[in-house]
């Protein structure tokens, strides 16, 4: 899959020929995934490093990044900055890292202490945002001896769980509005109305990656692992019996228009595989992850005559609110465009393959 990406897009900056180049969370994640193959061939790491170098200036600023937007999506690419800084020791990367840390120091929060998803989405916590921020902050805390961020990370993970949890199913709603003012928000709970597969995928990947850096002695570590275990079990209960994968709207597979979605399924495969290997989950989840990966190959992946790989049925993007207004309904989630080889599916596919040694 990584070879297919590089063959079709010699520069990751131009992946899928975007109308506007951005310091983009999902393309950066694809770079991170491909970089993990660097031990096989340095060309994979160079691919990611070239992407970073397109954005980072000699003075340590980052093109197309405005911290004052307070957009939590812009934090995820900074994980690659840490990787390149550790390899090169160049001061410009450290300065760029600190720009992102300064954003998070100033980033607006809910009254309950959770990061707003974006300045333009006030009082809202989205599961997506837990992945965008917490693995970077946990790694920064470990690499740069800033342990205060571990408490922030633990609070974010556990708060997001508390406010989005549906106690009946164990599943997590996509987002929560503390103000309960959004049209999509339940007037009593503040939660959005549906369980979106990729939202839960982001959350599961966030936890399993955060734990790479989290101190064994941290008082919230066991609570985070317990949440991970409970959520994994809840996901198994809504897995499609026929394909072994997950629907776009997790618990409504019986409704017309719902479809088996690639990114969420790949994210769960990655989280289950890594979680089992690290001992956070029962070892049976490793077999589940392998079966899910096989099912992705059988149901969602094709290979053309030139050997180029395409992953199908990946939701291009889903959000809440904004203009035009996204109401979080079932009809909304199934209406968003599906994009072949969207990086939000390709990246976790590669990560799962690496974890499973496939």
TrEMBL record:
Keyword Chaperone applies: no
InterPro entries: 6-hairpin_glycosidase_sf, 6hp_glycosidase-like_sf, Glyco_hydro_88, PolySaccharide_Degr_Enz
Pfam families attached to this UniProt entry: Glyco_hydro_88
GO biological process: carbohydrate metabolic process
Gene Ontology terms, MF aspect: hydrolase activity
Keywords: Hydrolase
Protein name: Unsaturated rhamnogalacturonyl hydrolase
UniProt organism field: Thermophagus xiamenensis
């Amino acid at each position: 899959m990584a070879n297919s990406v590089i063959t079709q897009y010699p520069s990751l900056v131009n992946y899928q020929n975007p109308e506007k180049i951005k310091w983009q969370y999902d393309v950066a994640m694809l770079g991170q995934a491909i970089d993990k193959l660097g031990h096989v061939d340095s060309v994979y790491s160079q691919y990611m490093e070239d992407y970073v170098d397109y954005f980072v200036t000699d003075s340590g600023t980052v093109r197309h990044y405005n911290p004052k937007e307070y957009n939590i999506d812009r934090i995820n690419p900074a994980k690659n900055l840490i990787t390149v800084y550790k390899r090169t020791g160049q001061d410009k990367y450290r300065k760029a890292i600190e720009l992102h840390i300064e954003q998070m120091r100033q980033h607006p929060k809910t009254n309950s202490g959770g990061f707003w998803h974006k300045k333009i989405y006030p009082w809202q916590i989205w599961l997506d945002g837990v992945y965008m921020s917490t693995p970077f902050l946990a790694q920064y805390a470990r690499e740069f001896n800033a342990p205060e961020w571990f408490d922030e990370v633990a609070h974010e993970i556990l708060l997001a769980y508390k406010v989005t949890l549906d106690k009946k199913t164990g599943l997590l709603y996509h987002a929560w509005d503390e103000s309960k003012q959004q049209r999509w928000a339940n007037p009593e709970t503040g939660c959005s109305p549906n369980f979106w597969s990729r939202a839960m995928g982001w959350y599961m990947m966030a936890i399993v990656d955060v734990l790479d850096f989290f101190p064994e002695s941290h008082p919230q570590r066991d609570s985070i692992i317990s949440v991970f275990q409970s959520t994994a079990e809840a996901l198994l209960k809504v897995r499609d019996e026929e394909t072994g994968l997950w629907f776009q709207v997790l618990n409504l597979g019986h409704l017309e228009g719902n479809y088996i979605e690639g990114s969420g399924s790949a994210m769960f495969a990655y989280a289950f595989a890594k979680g089992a290997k690290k001992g956070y989950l029962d070892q049976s989840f490793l077999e589940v992850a392998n079966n899910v990966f096989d099912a992705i190959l059988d149901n969602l992946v094709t290979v053309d005559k030139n050997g180029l790989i395409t992953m199908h049925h990946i939701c291009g993007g889903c959000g809440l609110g904004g203009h035009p207004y996204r109401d979080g309904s079932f009809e909304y989630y199934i209406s968003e465009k599906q994009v072949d080889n969207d990086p939000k599916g390709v990246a976790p596919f590669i990560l799962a393959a690496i974890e499973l040694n496939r």
